[in-house]
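Title: Prediction job returns without error message
Component: structure pipeline
Severity: low
Priority: P3
Assignee: unassigned

Description:
Job completed but the reporter wants confirmation the result is attached to the right record. Sequence as submitted:
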Amino acid sequence: MEQRPIAQGTGTGNNVLSVYSDRVELSSGFPGQNTTSVGLKQIANVSIQGWVNCTLTIEINDGRRLNLERMALPDARQIKAVIERQKRMAGLHE
């Protein structure tokens, strides 16, 4: 049985970011055509830029960046808070 996401947000181009208890999944394209899954241990930093159409950037330890552009600010803040809370609960946050 698939877990339910703790938080979700959408950006341009049918990009959907889902935060689960142990990972973050970015689905893009036509309904979930391309899916990228990243474990919480691999996430180095989460940042938000902008006020109206925000850009949420997730930096991964191997140098990659996942960008979700044109997100609503409340969605971006919720996703950032949930990722940081999950990392803190797992003892991974510095």
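Comment from assignee: result matches the submitted record. The chain has one domain: 7-87.
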